[in-house]
Design brief:
By secondary structure, this protein is an alpha+beta fold. It contains 3 helices and 16 strands. It folds into 2 domains: about 50-75 and about 100-130 and about 225-365, no CATH class; about 135-215. A hairpin with a 2-residue loop joins strand 14 (about 325-335) and strand 15.
Length: about 375
């Protein structure tokens, strides 16, 4: 015989009074923690934006570092014949032209270029074949007399690419002489039928072939990149007033205009300092901010190091943060002489300058392609 088990449940629910009490307690707790939560959210947002800005800055600085290290790569030191080439077509960039007939200077800059850049910052120019942003500019090969260009098996130049040809040591005694066909200073690449005018005659002679541009007729026998700060019409909302963007602008081989690419946001200043060995004894004996008076050969022989100082801020405006000091040194003191610039945040940036996290990034670069 089975026994019937009766389960007695308490069907009583939560009363309205109890619900009001619980809700009131929850509201009180939330109100007590509103300020804390706000601080946490602000700090989290600030840290996220700061990390993002740091990553962008690292990438931009590495691009600049690489370009400076390769300054002079593929540049001719002399010309096989009379030459007339063009560089930048308009101001301000045409102020740094070596055209129409001078050998190109690997590096030069405008010191505190008041009419060219934001906040009187410097204007930096780098010339090499590899400084271009296309795939062709990243490739090179060589050709020996009686043969076709060396094939690497990967990353080879493509047929139709515009290239220049350099004779590393010509019979005339010149180093890195640009091979020419009359007044023509470039040719079209072919892996199987390279133009005889740009090929060595002797089996013991080697020419170096540098890629410059994939399909545009060249106006100059190299590529060129200009670095400068400008403030576009539309700036990132997080940037402080009177800051701009650091651009890398390659000079278009077709029309000589700048093709700007943004690298780093919220930049207030850039200063460039050069270290020279003026007597070629292996010791740096001169530090200057302007090398515009040096020739291409003097720059190759004397320039040993380039230092670039970039002032920017991390993250957005933070009213809970206060920067210590109204000025910041964009540069450094060497042997009791200051090179660079003391930047006045208060007067140049203006209202709210103290609520940004300002930082100076320093690049120290030794160019590797000036003398070899």
């Amino acid at each position: 015989m089975k026994k019937k088990i009766t389960i007695i449940r308490n069907e009583k629910g939560v009363s309205f009074i109890e619900l009001l009490v619980v809700m009131t307690l929850v509201v009180i707790v939330l109100m007590m923690n509103t300020d804390t939560l706000g601080v946490i959210f602000r700090q989290s947002r600030q840290q996220t934006q700061s990390v993002g800005a740091q990553m962008d800055r690292i990438v931009g600085l590495e691009i600049l570092r690489t370009d400076l290290e390769h300054a002079g790569f593929g540049l001719p030191w002399s010309f096989q014949g009379a030459i007339s080439y063009q560089e930048a077509s308009a101001s301000p960039q045409n102020a740094y032209n070596d055209a129409p007939s001078n050998p190109p200077r690997a590096v030069l800059s405008g010191n505190n270029s008041s009419t060219f850049t934001l906040n009187n910052s410097d204007y930096l120019v780098i010339k090499s074949t590899i400084v271009g942003t296309n795939e062709t500019s990243q490739r090179w090969t060589y050709i020996v007399g009686g043969q076709q260009p060396q094939a690497w098996g990967s990353n080879d130049l493509s047929n139709g690419d515009r290239v220049t040809v350099i004779w590393p040591r010509s019979v005339t005694g010149f180093n890195k002489e640009l091979v020419m066909d009359g007044t023509n200073f470039y040719t079209t690449y072919s892996s199987s039928a390279f133009p005889v005018e740009y090929s060595p005659a002797a089996a013991t002679t080697r020419y170096v072939i540098y890629g410059v541009d994939p399909d545009t007729n060249l106006r100059m026998p190299f590529n060129r990149a200009d670095y400068y700060i400008q403030r576009p019409a539309s700036m990132p909302q997080a940037c402080a007033p009177n800051t701009g963007i650091l651009y890398k602008a390659t000079i278009n081989q077709g029309n000589g205009a700048r093709n700007p690419e943004p690298l780093i946001d919220c930049v207030a200043d850039m200063q460039v300092v050069f270290r020279l060995d003026t007597n070629n004894d292996g010791i740096i004996d001169s530090i200057v901010e302007d090398i515009s008076g040096l020739s291409a050969q003097q720059i190759r022989e004397q320039l040993r190091e380039v230092r670039v100082y970039i002032l920017s801020h991390e993250g957005q405006m933070d009213n809970a943060f206060r920067y210590n000091g109204s000025t910041i040194n964009v540069g450094e003191e060497i042997n009791s002489t200051f090179f660079g610039r003391t930047f006045n945040l208060s007067s140049i940036i203006g209202t709210g300058w103290e609520h940004y996290r300002w930082k100076v990034n320093v690049l120290v670069v030794k160019p590797r392609n000036l003398t070899s």
